[in-house]
Write a structure and sequence with these properties.
Order of helices and strands: EHEEHEHEHEHEEEHHEH
Number of strands: 10
Number of domains: 1
Helix content: 25-40%
Largest sheet: 8 strands, mixed
Radius of gyration: 16 Å
Distance between the termini: 24 Å
Strand order of the largest sheet: 5-4-1-6-9-7-10-8
CATH class: Alpha Beta
CATH topology: Spore Coat Polysaccharide Biosynthesis Protein SpsA, Chain A
């Protein structure tokens, strides 16, 4: 079983600070428009182009606004869950997601990564699924070196790994993702860096300038 966990629980702090500084109406970055669709929908549609069989979107801040945006997409394959409380770290959001998926391979994607193509997401899934020890590998979008890695420095989402790894390393952490990835690699978990298709795939939408860059360069050909 291949599942996807899409994290969409962030506070939107950096984007909100930029919008207020620029005198722009405050919007959650996941609801901003890119080629006629909100960021979160673009991300979700790219996930749906992979071999994923179920997707769990995990909400926190802006719960009602994002849930309303997703209403027309919720079906037997796409479900929405909410964190018990706001303000938790990414590890807790991912753990909430993994608790709601079936046992097996998990594709973990941030909701603000609409530039990562379905093609690249599928490569992450395939690299993990085809490894001889599929329960002990993290295939991750490479930020620098590709292939087998000896450090998780600078790495984050998207990545694919077995749900058992997430259930082992996430509980009790209440931390950002990178220190947890470092613990995995130090314990002997195999890391494999999948190259990005282009530089745009490496852009996360955190600031208003990021959004403007993505909006300008994004092509709906994914």
């Amino acid at each position: 079983m291949i599942s996807a966990i899409i994290t969409a629980a962030g506070k939107n702090r950096r984007m909100e600070e930029d919008q207020k500084r620029l005198g722009i109406e405050v919007w959650n970055k996941l609801l901003l428009d890119i080629q006629g669709k909100p960021v979160i929908i673009q991300t979700l549609e790219h996930v749906q182009k992979t071999s994923v069989k179920e997707s769990i979107v995990v909400l926190g801040y802006y719960n009602n606004e994002i849930k309303t945006m997703l209403e027309n997409y919720i079906n037997n394959e796409i479900k929405v869950v909410s964190n018990p409380k706001n303000g938790v770290e990414l590890s807790e959001t991912l753990l909430n997601g993994v608790k709601n998926v079936k046992k097996g391979l998990c594709l973990c994607v941030a909701g603000d990564q609409p530039t990562v193509s379905g093609e690249t997401m599928q490569k992450l899934v395939d690299a993990a699924r085809q490894h001889p020890d599929a329960d002990n590998i993290v295939s991750i979008l490479a930020r620098k070196d590709t292939g087998y890695l000896n450090t998780a420095e600078g790495l984050g989402m998207p990545f694919a790994c077995h749900s058992s790894l997430l259930k082992k390393y996430l509980p009790g952490r209440n931390d950002n993702l990178n220190p947890i990835l470092e613990d995995m690699i130090n314990d002997g978990v195999v890391f494999y860096g999948v190259p990005a298709r282009d530089e745009l795939e490496l852009v996360n939408i955190n600031h208003w300038e990021d959004y403007l860059k993505v909006k300008k360069l994004f092509k709906d050909i994914r």
